[in-house]
Automatic annotation (TrEMBL):
<dbReference type="GO" id="GO:0030145">
    <property type="term" value="F:manganese ion binding"/>
</dbReference>
<feature type="domain" description="Aminopeptidase P N-terminal">
    <location>
        <begin position="41"/>
        <end position="182"/>
    </location>
</feature>
<keyword id="KW-0464">Manganese</keyword>
<dbReference type="InterPro" id="IPR001131">
    <property type="entry name" value="Peptidase_M24B_aminopep-P_CS"/>
</dbReference>
<dbReference type="InterPro" id="IPR007865">
    <property type="entry name" value="Aminopep_P_N"/>
</dbReference>
<dbReference type="InterPro" id="IPR052433">
    <property type="entry name" value="X-Pro_dipept-like"/>
</dbReference>
<dbReference type="InterPro" id="IPR036005">
    <property type="entry name" value="Creatinase/aminopeptidase-like"/>
</dbReference>
<dbReference type="InterPro" id="IPR029149">
    <property type="entry name" value="Creatin/AminoP/Spt16_N"/>
</dbReference>
<comment type="similarity">
    <text>Belongs to the peptidase M24B family.</text>
</comment>
<protein>
    <recommendedName>
        <fullName>Xaa-Pro aminopeptidase</fullName>
        <ecNumber>3.4.11.9</ecNumber>
    </recommendedName>
</protein>
<dbReference type="GO" id="GO:0006508">
    <property type="term" value="P:proteolysis"/>
</dbReference>
<dbReference type="Pfam" id="PF05195">
    <property type="entry name" value="AMP_N"/>
</dbReference>
<dbReference type="InterPro" id="IPR000994">
    <property type="entry name" value="Pept_M24"/>
</dbReference>
<dbReference type="Pfam" id="PF00557">
    <property type="entry name" value="Peptidase_M24"/>
</dbReference>
<keyword id="KW-0645">Protease</keyword>
<keyword id="KW-0378">Hydrolase</keyword>
<keyword id="KW-0031">Aminopeptidase</keyword>
């Protein structure tokens, strides 16, 4: 992974050695680097505030927050790099920045980013390093350029061990353990032991600092939702073509992915494009089935911005443009459940109230349709839970830098906690009637519906961030016919 001392560039086996003549030739005749510093990231003030908050939670301690390293996909091919969300939160860096970097927040709340800076073009790394070489990965920042970009000091990654041991006496260290194993090993060696509980407290704190979004973060989520809606619109525009192809699920996944890469950084998570009975598999990401007129397409997708904030939206759409009577029956029940769940979302309400409100509507629908074998009260009780046969997942989760944001937060602040202004959550009830479910009338089997929107808690209630897309069944049909007239 990361080199703690300047290392000699090793050529991959089988590659011809570079001649002295080539080394002399490759190192000259280049335009000088731009002397003007880059503009400071718009995320810098938000990141600075988070660093101060984190430091105040651990007074007198040194916090170590790695970006992480490349992860191998297969053989010598790596996945595209994405930094640890805690690193992005505390530095403001997004997209693919900065592999192997480490943020260190000092006891006085000052910070320094340690990374592998650009080397001179006379250095063999320039042309010979697939990991850092400008010929291989593009132009990298110098120390000064990275400092200007982030808005705080930087240092060479080789200085990290010394930085972690500096100061009078032994400054207590905490590290985000799951971000970079080599950095964790270094910290453990310096401390003389692994301190799992202390490090876990740091990860928990970083998660909890993301529970309430600031104005800049909310603006990022609004933009992610807006762009995601445009991706859904293009899916509808291409649905007829997707029907023509054997694997239409892959086609619409690709259409959305094109928007994600063009308008943002990537998809925020693996796109679910589930047509027909595939909609009843909650995490259907194989996406290898056809789109058939008369069936539904459940699409769960979100665009992640360069800042790494992501949307998370689900729409269930009739492939032929119109819901059947049975499809509309199920869809409208989910729509009513979602609205009831949203209406329960307000400051001071429990996070769990949203789920309870939504499943109450769904369970009553199951009773009205004659498929619930017990009373509504029993089905909703902890001793019963029969409703979960057709709605097995939770209705909400936090959203932000991660699609399932704040996952390390303590239960009393998340699942057992109160909603507060600035929290962003999803509301996503569903009904899933598998084609093999003999408890369900034949005409309803194979129909799966989920509707998901992203909302922010406001002082007086909530705001739908994903309001660009229709939710009412008739409005969905009208929207689809406007985009792709039939």
């Amino acid at each position: 992974m990361m080199a703690m001392a300047q290392e000699k560039i090793e050529l991959p086996k089988g590659r011809a050695p570079f001649s002295e003549a080539f080394k002399a030739f490759i190192s000259q005749g280049w335009s000088p680097y731009d002397p003007n510093p880059p503009q400071t990231l718009a995320s810098a003030p938000s990141a600075a505030a988070h660093r101060l908050e984190a430091s105040q939670l651990f007074p007198g301690e040194r916090l170590v927050i790695p970006a992480g390293a490349y992860k191998v996909r297969n053989n010598d091919c790596d996945y595209a790099f994405r930094p640890h969300s805690g690193f992005a939160q505390m530095t403001g860096l997004g997209t693919d920045r900065e592999p192997d970097a480490v943020l260190v927040v000092e006891p006085d709340a000052s910070a320094r980013l340690y990374f592998h800076p650009r080397v001179p073009r006379t250095d063999p790394e320039f042309y010979a390093s697939p990991r850092y070489g400008e010929m291989w990965v593009g132009q990298r920042e110098s120390l000064d350029e990275m400092s200007a970009l982030c808005g705080f000091p930087t240092g060479d990654i080789t200085e990290l061990p010394q930085a972690l041991t500096s100061g009078h006496g032994r400054v207590p260290l905490r590290v985000v353990r799951d971000a970079d194993p080599s950095v964790t090993a270094l910290v453990d060696a310096l401390r003389g032991e692994a301190q799992l509980d202390r490090d876990s407290e740091l990860s928990t704190a970083l998660s909890e600092l993301r529970l309430v979004k600031d104005d800049w973060e909310l603006a990022q989520l609004r933009e992610a939702c807006r762009l995601t809606a445009l991706g859904f619109e293009d899916v509808v525009a291409n649905m007829a073509r997707a029907v023509e192809y054997g694997r239409g699920e892959r086609w619409v996944e690709g259409i959305f992915g094109l928007h994600a890469r063009h308008d943002g950084n990537a998809v925020g998570y693996d796109t679910i494009a589930a047509a027909g009975d595939h909609a009843n598999t909650l995490h259907w990401v194989r996406n290898d089935g056809p789109l058939v007129p008369g069936e539904l397409l459940l699409m769960d997708a979100g665009i992640e911005l360069d800042s790494l904030f992501t949307a998370d939206i689900t729409r269930t759409m009739p492939v032929g443009g119109h819901f059947s009577e049975e499809q509309r029956q199920i869809y409208d029940a989910v729509r009513a459940a979602q609205q009831t769940g949203m209406d329960a979302a307000r400051p001071g309400a429990q996070f769990a109230d949203v789920h309870a409100a939504a499943i109450g509507v769904l369970t009553q629908a199951f009773a009205d349709w004659g498929i619930l074998p017990v009373s509504v009260d029993e089905a909703l009780s902890p001793q019963g839970g029969q409703f979960r046969r057709w709605m097995v997942h939770g209705t909400s989760h936090h959203l932000g830098l991660d699609v399932h944001d704040c996952a390390q937060a303590r239960a009393e602040h998340y699942r057992l906690g109160e909603l507060r202004p600035g929290m962003v959550i999803t509301v996503e009830p569903g009904i899933y009637f598998k084609s093999t479910d003999l408890m369900v009338p034949p005409q309803l089997r194979g129909i799966g519906v989920r509707i998901e929107d992203d909302i922010v808690i406001t002082p007086n209630g909530y705001e739908i961030l994903s309001s660009h897309l229709p939710r009412d069944s008739h409005e969905v049909e009208s929207w689809m016919s406007t985009i792709a007239p039939r």
